From TrEMBL:
GO terms for biological process: D-galacturonate catabolic process; D-glucuronate catabolic process; pectin catabolic process. Its EC number is 5.3.1.17. This is 4-deoxy-L-threo-5-hexosulose-uronate ketol-isomerase. Signal peptide: none annotated. CDD domains: cupin_KduI_C (cd20491), cupin_KduI_N (cd20294). Keywords: Isomerase, Metal-binding, Zinc. The gene is kduI. PANTHER family: 4-DEOXY-L-THREO-5-HEXOSULOSE-URONATE KETOL-ISOMERASE (PTHR38461). Gene3D superfamilies: Jelly Rolls, pectin degrading enzyme 5-keto 4- deoxyuronate isomerase, domain 1. It catalyses: 5-dehydro-4-deoxy-D-glucuronate = 3-deoxy-D-glycero-2,5-hexodiulosonate. NCBIfam families: PRK00924.1. HAMAP family: KduI (MF_00687). It comes from Sanguibacter inulinus. Zn(2+) binds at H199, H201, E206, H248.
Length: 281
């Protein structure tokens, strides 16, 4: 498990490209035959990915979380962005087709990831299970959300190049959790901005996993304080860690999708502080 300490917004103006990427970009989320995990001290979130590649991969604890098993004091949201995968939780196996989401609550001891039927036929070459975990104070039931079963919100406008469909998967009106709020947004053809005007939310850390981006395309992800913005150039299936004080918005050279996930003070989707475009620097 890679560990990244929290940053202060005053540090951002002095950071160059390499340091920004080391702090906030997770480049290798999916590695065939491995589970990758990054522990950020921003709200003690863990992000990562599992790519079974024909093997069974067990989610094990590490020294960074000081626990007997990974979900002893945590919960986790899992979204599959590859071919069909399976997650076996304490002996019960769940099948996750592309776009499905599984929530596992505190106290689930044994978690194993594997490819499902026909996984290799997907362009990704198998299951790619994105992981987002946060500390949990109690236990909520395991829940599987299949594609299309979440709460969909249509947002934006084609005239401002940000027409998008947002599906809420783990949220107060759907799958219950302690902290984790999670969903998937897909841009409509011809739209490139994932949100604009941009916003911050001082009460939560948010992470984006960009996917379904052509190999030769990139997303320019804006970050930093609204009056001290910086940017990250992000490729397909890379993740961005956005601290509570950081603006987050992105524009792509092609249409794309992204998994968004948050943890922190509350779970209110609309608890955000919009930044008017003419105030961004």
């Amino acid at each position: 498990m890679e560990q990244r300490y929290a940053t202060n917004p005053d540090q951002i103006p002095g950071m160059g490209t390499d340091e920004l990427r080391e702090r906030f970009l997770v480049e290798a989320v999916f590695v065939p035959g491995e589970i990758t995990l990054v522990y950020t001290h921003h709200d003690r979130v863990v992000v990562g990915g599992a790519q079974p590649a024909g093997q069974e991969l067990a989610l094990l604890p590490s020294d960074e979380i000081r626990a007997e098993y990974f979900l002893e004091n945590r919960e986790i949201g899992i979204v599959n962005v590859g071919g069909t995968g399976t997650v076996t939780a304490d002996g019960e196996t769940f099948t996750l087709p592309t776009g499905a989401c599984l929530y596992l609550g505190r106290g689930v001891r044994d978690v194993v990831f594997a490819d499902g039927p026909g996984a290799a036929e997907h362009p990704a070459g198998g299951a790619q299970l994105y992981l987002f975990s946060a500390p949990a104070h109690t236990t909520y039931p395991t829940r599987l959300v299949l594609p299309g079963e979440g709460t969909t919100r249509e947002l934006g406008d084609q005239l401002t190049s940000n027409r998008r469909s947002l599906e809420q998967l783990i949220h107060p009106g759907g799958v219950q959790s302690c902290q984790v709020v999670m969903g998937v947004t897909s841009l409509h053809p011809g739209s490139m901005w994932n949100t604009m005007p941009a916003h911050t939310h001082e009460r939560r850390t948010e992470c984006y996993l960009y996917f379904d981006l052509p190999e030769d395309a990139r997303v320019i992800h804006l970050c930093g304080q609204p009056t001290q913005t910086r940017h990250l150039v992000v490729a397909d299936r890379q993740a961005v860690i956005s601290p509570s004080w950081s603006l987050h918005s992105g524009v792509g050279t092609a249409a794309y999708s992204f998994v968004w996930a948050m943890a922190g003070e509350n779970q209110a989707f609309d608890d955000m502080d919009a930044v008017p475009v003419d105030q961004i620097r």
